[in-house]
Amino acid sequence: MRASTGSNMSFVFTLVIFIIYGTFNTAMGAHPWIYPSELFPTHIRGTAMGFITGVTRIASSIGTFLFPMILASYGLTVTLYICGALFFLGFLVSLVMAPETKNMSLKETSSLNKSKHIEQDSFASKKTAN
After folding, report:
1. How far apart are CA 119 and CA 103, in angstroms?
2. For 40-114, where are the alpha helices, taking DSSP H only?
């Protein structure tokens, strides 16, 4: 006898979908903590990571608020196309703007976006100068 869900999907298909979903969410959930922490210099890393976390939380809240309204107004197909378009837009922005950190040390990646202005005006540089 074949195990199935209420909509006659096979158990294996449902299991594969859950595995894909879990893998995707694990990767997306870890991304804001891993990649940005490599890019910011040590003297601003804590503040920058706090800011990034705040931005991701606000964006998640907006998405959670808008999703049911878009779904009710336009239906499932259009809503999922909008979600796919937003993911693709994020992919393009990351592809164009995000520097590659493969095979680089943390010190090298932290210096990718360092400017003299930030270094001179930072609290850490003033504290060590005294």
Report:
1. 25
2. 42-97, 106-110
| CB distance 11 to 5 below 8 Å | yes
Q: In whole angstroms, give the CA distance from residue 40 to residue 34.
A: 11
Amino acid at 87: F
Look at residue 105 and give its three-state secondary structure. Answer: coil
CB of 107 within 8 A of CB of 40? no
| Bridge partners (DSSP) listed for residue 10 | 4
Range of weakest confidence among 13-17, 24-28, 65-69, 76-80: 24-28
Rounded CA separation 9/57 (Å): 34
For residue 30, with 0-12 CB atoms within 10 Å meaning exposed, 13-18 middle and 19 or more buried, which class applies? exposed
Predicted model pTM: 0.57
Give the C-alpha separation, 73 to 54, whole Å. 29
Distance separating alpha carbons of residues 33 and 36, to the nearest angstrom: 6
Structure tokens of 76? 């499932």
- Name residue 119's amino acid: E
Kindly state the helix (H) or strand (E) to which residue 120 belongs, with its residue range.
helix 116-121
